[in-house]
Amino acid sequence: MKYNVPRGTKDILPGETPLWQKLEAACRKVFAIYNYQEIRTPVFEMTELFARSIGNTTDIVKKEMYTFEDRKGRSLTLRPEETAPVVRACLENSLIGPDQITKLYYIGPMFRYERPQAGRQRQFHQAGVEVFGSGDSLVDVEVIQMNMKLFEDIGLTDLEVDINSVGCKDCQPVFRKALKDYFKNNVKKMCEDCKDRFDKNPLRILDCKEKGCQSYINKAPASVDYLCPECKSHFDAVISRLNDAKLNYKINKRLVRGLDYYTKTTFEIICSKLGAQNAVSGGGRYDTLVQEFGGKATPAVGFAIGIERVIEVLKTGSPNFRKSEQGISLFIATLGGEAKKIGFDLLTKARNKGIPADMDYLGKSLKAQMKAADRTGAKYVYIIGEDEINKKSGILKEMKSGNQKEVPFNSLEEEV
Ligand code: HAM
């Protein structure tokens, strides 16, 4: 029997993990510079948490969740995103409070039952941030700026920030009515899902991917034209502060996010080096979610980047971000049982000093051990045979130059 990785998932193999580690390190570095702290939550939550926050009429909740019952009949779901779990964790652990800003970040796997294609998987990874406690437009600018700083640091180019506003609980009903008025004449000609969305949540029609619906959607009213005075002035402030911060952006009235919790600002960062799935990051404000989860009214904003998509671009050769040189410093090659014992002791000593080192455990010939050392990228090989045991001194060979010299057992670490 041969087993394969489940559809829509991927192994991240040793050839690629150095790039992942570098990207994760770059995230942690930038997030720390902006004063964000890490949070880790379980990969599954009560299903209700996602249904309520992301929205019952969204594709994610309707079609894409990995939902299962545990042995006690509780409905659980593998997290399709991390904003709702972070809000839950903050409330449960009193991490958010009045007159307090809480800035958190996370890196980890998410799960959505989508049709797999380039840039779209069923298990994928996000690095994201959430800020709680301030409705200041400068925080919207901070998260966009931080996101762009991260992309700049790792050398990601060909980017565009698309920005929009979806309004708040006051202006969304006005916009919803405008959408209903507009779509009521066309909805009969649109897909079955859109007919359902028309009744339940006309905003979701804008997120429809069906080709036949696009000509109607393209001419639909846009949320930015229906903002209440407060949302309008917030949006204007974000735009003017993006200008002050010299951040390039495009106002995209057609930008629709696939999650219902957003209020006011929404944004996506698009990379033109990618194919159809070209959003490398997405986020926005969600000023009502904390309250909906039973907390005090707390404004919030955040984003999440899609790690696989960023890695895809980096693999094509970003100048700041080439594949790291891997390799150990020392390989110990031994001939015979006694040499092996001594070699293992020396190996342990070198490792205890923090020197990356290894030896042969397959009983290979010296020639084969030299080859193995070369494959691991070892800088030095230390050879111990019978003569060397007697002299308590081995031969240290520098692989690049081929130079070699005698080095006593007890000064190997210093020499390396
Ligand atoms: P999202 O737009 O659903 O937002 O996902 C964010 C990013 O995750 C996307 O831009 C994309 O790069 C990546 N992504 C999403 N689905 C997949 C997939 N199936 N395969 C590969 N990559 C994918 C959220 O998840 C929000 N929680 C972001 C947020 C945080 N909003 C406020 N705070």
Radius of gyration over all CA atoms, rounded? 28 Å
CATH architecture of the largest domain: 2-Layer Sandwich
Low-confidence stretches: none
Helix content class: 25-40%
Strand order in space, largest sheet: 1-5-6-11-10-9-7-8
- Overall average pLDDT: 95
Please give a structural write-up.
This protein is of the alpha+beta class and 416 residues long. The protein folds into two domains: 250 residues, Bira Bifunctional Protein, Domain 2 (BirA Bifunctional Protein, domain 2, 2-Layer Sandwich), CATH 3.30.930.10; 86 residues, Anticodon-binding domain (Rossmann fold), CATH 3.40.50.800. It contains 15 helices and 16 strands. It has an eight-stranded mixed beta sheet with strand order 1-5-6-11-10-9-7-8. Strands 13-12-14-15-16 form a five-stranded mixed beta sheet, sandwiched between helices. A hairpin with a 5-residue loop joins β15 and β16. α1 runs antiparallel to α5. The longest helix has 17 residues. It is elongated, with a radius of gyration of 28 Å. The mean pLDDT is 95. Histidyl-adenosine monophosphate binds next to β6, β10, β11 and α11. The site of histidyl-adenosine monophosphate (HAM) has 26 residues, from β6, β10, β11 and α11.
Keywords, separated by commas or semicolons:
about 425 residues, elongated, binds histidyl-adenosine monophosphate, Rossmann fold, 8-stranded mixed beta sheet, BirA Bifunctional Protein, domain 2, 15 helices
